[in-house]
Structure formats: C-alpha cells, structure tokens
Design a protein that fits this description.
single chain; alpha/beta
C-alpha cells in the first residue's frame, strides 16, 4: 500500500483508509468479531489509516477499534473526532466546540481507544455558538501536550477552514465526496490545495449505493439510517440509479466491480485525496483495496463526470454541514 502525505505538516497515511463507523451503528446489526477481523485484515493489507468518532455507537466504536489495535498500535494512523454530543442512550444533544468540552472529549476518546495519543483529531462538526479560534486553540493545546499529533476539521466551510488554519495548521479536511457528490470541487478543494491541507472523502461509495448492489430500500435492515437519506427516496432514487448504471457499464467492460470503479474515480482526483470507504466485512474490504489497481482512462473519467451529481440533499437536515 502506497504511503502518501496528508497535508503539509508531516502526517503520512496509507493511500486508502478504513471508515469504521458502520461496524457499530447506522448500517444494520453489529458483528464485533467480524469487524475486528476486518480491521486486522486491513492492517495486513497496508490499510493503516483508521477512522472513527466518539459519537459512533455512541462511544462503542472507539472501544471496538481500541480492542482491535491493542497489540498493533504502532501499525496504525488513528483518527477520531469530537463535537457531536450524544447521551449514552444515543440521544443527540447538539454540537459543542468550547474549550472545556474539547479537552473532556479528548480524554474520553483516549480512554476508550486505550491509547496515549491520537494521530489525527478532527472537529466533527463546527459549533456555531463557539468561535472556531477557541475550538482550534484548545485542540492546539492537546498537540502541545502530546495527546494529539495533527488536527483536522469535518464539514467546514472555506472561510472557517482559513480561520482555523491561522490558529494552528490543519492537516486534513473531511467531507463527503464521490462520483455523485462533487460539491467540494467548487470551493473546498481549491482552498485545501492553496493551504496545503489534505482531503479525506467519506462515503466515497455513496453509502453503498455506488456499489451497484442497492436498488431498493427494502433491501436494508429496518434500523439502517439510509431509510432517511433524501438521495434514496422516491424520484431521487430513480434518477440516481442512472449514475450507478454508468458505473456498472464501465465495471462490466473492465471486468472489475462497480465499487472499484467508484473508488478509482476518487483516487484519480489526486494523491492529496485519501478516501476512507467503510465496511465491516473482510470481503468488501479486499474488494475496496483492489480499486487501487484500477486506473481509469480519460474517456472513462469523462463518462463518469458526465453522469452528473446526485438528485437530493446528502442529509435530511443540511444545516450542520459546511459551516
């Protein structure tokens, strides 16, 4: 697995990461044994960039990742996030970025992960009630204390990114990006490249939709959060299937899978773009890693771009993103 720099501050990660969220919540039943086996297989394959957050579970995903890496910490570039506050029963309590909470959240993540430092610490969502300067200032104190190595933001607007970066260098920005979600190309990606900040796309497979296996919400478990996704509802779903059919056609011609085509498109956007496809199954992990061997032609890339962006918003409530 090719190592690449993420940002310009010295952080190096595997060319592709592993999103661990779905191992604990949002995508149907848990299977902790298979999830841990998937993390171990990822490390064996050189996928050493692991992504979690305190809100996943809530809290249980960090505990799961901590168990999985307990005897392999030196192999891992560990990323986690704070700011989305949830009670133990899962109730959403809002967003916090005040200095006191930043420290409280970090201590909790270190404890659950069973580590003495976090390699990349993200603010998961921007707190509109707290100046970004206060939040990043508190995060910078954690760097000075050795509890965090590098800082990141998630779903931050260009102006916020600039203000944050002026307080302490930001190494990575995370937001959704894929064949069907290309909004970051307008302002976010140019800002990141100007400032020397790496880009970490989440949901590079469109929450599984771009794999070509999902055609109806009836295929999902009752508690799968994708039932609430606007892009998978009614007329939006029908319109978006056309994008997947374009991916399917290229995959059939190349004798690869649709997921590999979708990931290869993301990789083609630059080595400063490091996607973190999520899975809780070893078979899908291995399929995703295979995307690194797929190099799309200029004609194939053009065909995918011509398919257009997805119909419908990314979330039912978009008020918390790109602040």
């Amino acid at each position: 697995m090719q190592p690449v720099p993420l940002g310009s501050q010295g952080l190096t990660v595997s060319r592709q990461g592993l999103g661990c969220m779905g191992m604990s919540e949002f995508y149907g039943p848990r299977d902790d044994a298979e999830s841990i086996a998937t993390i171990h297989r990822a490390l064996d394959l050189g996928v050493t960039f692991l992504d979690t957050a305190d809100m996943y579970g809530p809290h249980t995903n960090e505990e799961l990742v901590g168990r999985a890496i307990a005897d392999r910490r030196e192999q891992v570039v560990l990323a986690t996030k704070f700011a989305n506050v949830r009670a133990a029963d899962g109730t959403y309590l809002g967003v916090r970025g005040d200095a006191a909470y930043v420290r409280e959240a970090c201590e909790g993540s270190l404890r659950r992960l069973g580590v003495d430092h976090i390699d990349l610490y993200y603010q998961h969502r921007v707190d509109p009630k707290t100046p970004i300067e206060e939040t990043v200032g508190a995060m910078a104190e954690l760097v000075a204390e050795g509890k965090v190595r590098y800082l990141g933001l998630s779903e931050a607007a260009p102006a916020t990114i600039r203000r944050a970066h002026a307080v302490h260098p930001i190494s990575a920005l995370q937001t959704e990006y894929s064949v069907w979600a290309r909004e970051p190309e307008d302002e976010i990606l140019p800002t990141l490249r100007e400032l020397g900040i790496g880009f970490v796309p989440y949901s590079p497979l469109g929450r599984g939709f771009l794999t070509g296996t999902l055609r109806s919400l009836d295929q999902l478990a009752d508690d799968d959060f994708r039932h609430l996704q606007p892009r998978l509802q009614g007329d939006n779903l029908e319109a978006n299937i056309a994008i997947v059919e374009r991916i399917d056609a290229i995959a059939a011609e190349r004798d690869v899978t649709p997921a590999q085509v979708a990931l290869a498109w993301v990789h083609a956007q630059g080595e400063d773009v490091v996607p973190i496809p999520g899975t809780k199954w070893r078979s899908f992990l291995e399929e995703n890693v295979g995307a690194l061997d797929v190099e799309l032609t200029a004609e194939e890339l053009a065909a995918l771009e011509e398919a257009g962006q997805a119909a419908g918003d990314r979330y039912a409530d978009m008020s918390g993103v790109n602040r």
